[in-house]
Amino acid sequence: MNAFTLKGQPSLVTGANSGIGYAVAKALAAAGAPVVVNYVADPPSAERVVDEIRTAGGEAMAIRADVSREDEVQAMFRKMFDAYGTIHILVNNAGLQRDARFVDMTLHDWEFVLSVNLTGQFLCAREAAREFLRRGVIPEVSCAAGKILCMSSVHEVIPWAGHVNYAASKGGVMLLMKSLAQELAPHRIRVNSLCPGAIRTPINTAAWSTPEALSGLLTLIPYGRIGEPEDIGRAAVWLASDASDYVNGTSLFIDGGMTLFPGFSTNG
Ligand code: BGC
């Protein structure tokens, strides 16, 4: 069997109607997975992703759910199981920023980011893990009972002034992922994180949309280019496939070297 194929592995990508989630959904579908395109707002954008996947010969459906709401997450998984029978791959991607100077940050800014970026990953991972445990390994489909990919960030290790809610959420994702990986490994469930650096998406438009901003950003990226959503899509396919079967509990940085302390290349 081709170790990179995702054929027969229903997958759920949260926040798949734009940015990194969109690219990941398309990449998983191209690798053969039926994909649920989760979204919380803007249904036409999710339908466009579904159409693109179908036009390319893949299988997809859109399901709305706010990942921070337990009832909505559970209803989404029920709909997915009705349509596709089970889940093999969860990509916990939905995330957002609400940036503010620390002293100006409201409790709402703090709670909103934590509830989507961290609690949302907990709620979706729990539903997926319950199904993986119930179903177990199907050797013709995958050597694992299930795979969870957590979308983290370089900011699970790089502190970020003006974004303490976001950085705290990603630091939390790191130990959520590792603790889950440790707990679920005996059941043949793999849990890993993708840690993107600066990727050209709507979340960070201000960082790349003017020449000045882009050249400032590039000083932080030794590889000399901004990342594209497809860079993350390709890594997601590998991490979700049997090609990475012995990889568990790992943070995979996809950042052009942003975490290599670039300031030290001419200093220190
Ligand atoms: C953030 C982006 C930022 C990047 C690198 C990501 O996690 O969402 O806004 O550009 O990290 O700092």
What's the topology here?
Blueprint: E1 11-13, H1 19-30, E2 35-39, H2 43-55, E3 60-64, H3 70-84, E4 89-92, H4 107-135, E5 146-151, H5 164-184, E6 189-196, H6 205-208, H7 211-218, H8 229-240, E7 251-254
Parallel strand pairs: 1-2, 1-4, 2-3, 4-5, 5-6, 6-7
Helix pairs in contact: 1-8, 3-4, 4-5
What small molecules does this complex bind? beta-D-glucopyranose
CATH superfamily grouping? NAD(P)-binding Rossmann-like Domain
Structural domain tally: 1
Give helix and strand order, one letter per element, not per position: EHEHEHEHEHEHHHE
CATH topology: Rossmann fold
The CATH architecture can be given as: 3-Layer(aba) Sandwich
> Averaging pLDDT over every residue, what do you get?
98
Query: Which parts are unreliable, with pLDDT below 50 for 5 consecutive residues or more?
Result: none
* CATH class identity: Alpha Beta
* Broad shape: globular
Strand order of the largest sheet: 3-2-1-4-5-6-7
How far apart are the termini? Answer: 50 Å
* Tally of contiguous helical segments: 8
Strand count, sense and closure of the main sheet? 7 strands, parallel
Give the percentage of residues in beta strands. Answer: 5-15%
Tell me the radius of gyration.
18 Å
Helical content band: 40-55%
